[in-house]
Amino acid sequence: MIAGRKKIAGEYFKALKGTGVGLPVVRPGTAPSFYRFVIKVKDPVTVMASMKKKGIDAARPLFRPLHYYLGLTGYPVADRLQRESVSLPIYPSLTRGEMNRIKEGIKKSLKMEGS
């Protein structure tokens, strides 16, 4: 399962390189599972709406920053990242055709957004 997610993540990295999108950072010596593939965009609402019109379920990451749950404030970077993030489909059973459709869909959505 993790191998499938890593393969899809690799496809996303290749497809989105040079687009201006904020991509996940993979540090040397780490091995992320890519439970989610979260990108940072200027206008996530436009990107998600455009993807939805193409039948692609891109959404906000499921979890909010921890300080929300603790009733804390004063974490502007975490707040901004929450607002600017979009989670792309990365389930291991994606077919090659679905993967290609998602990659093309996100590229077109980013053009609409102005990235």
Give the helices and strands, then pairings:
Layout: H1 2-16, E1 37-40, H2 44-53, H3 66-69, H4 76-84, E2 85-88, H5 96-113
Antiparallel strand pairs: 1-2
Plain-language structure description:
By secondary structure, the chain is mainly α. The chain has a single domain (2-22, 32-113), classed as Aspartate Aminotransferase, domain 1. It has helices at residues 2-16, 44-53, 66-69, 76-84, 96-113; strands at 37-40, 85-88. The chain has a two-stranded antiparallel sheet. Helix 2 (44-53) packs across helix 5. The longest helix is centred in the last third of the chain and has 18 residues, at 96-113. The chain is globular.
Instruction: Briefly note the structural class of the backbone.
Output: mainly alpha
Q: What CATH architecture label applies?
A: Alpha-Beta Complex
Helix content: 40-55%
The helix tally amounts to: 5
Note the gap between the termini. 32 Å
Beta-strand percent range: 5-15%
Low-confidence stretches: none
Q: Quick one: biggest sheet? A: 2 strands, antiparallel
SSE sequence, one letter per element: HEHHHEH
Radius of gyration, whole Å: 14 Å
Sum up the overall morphology in one term.
globular
Query: Any idea of the CATH topology?
Result: Aspartate Aminotransferase, domain 1
Q: Work out the count of structural domains.
A: 1
Give the oligomer, counting copies of the same chain as homo and different chains as hetero.
single chain
**What does the average pLDDT come to?**
91
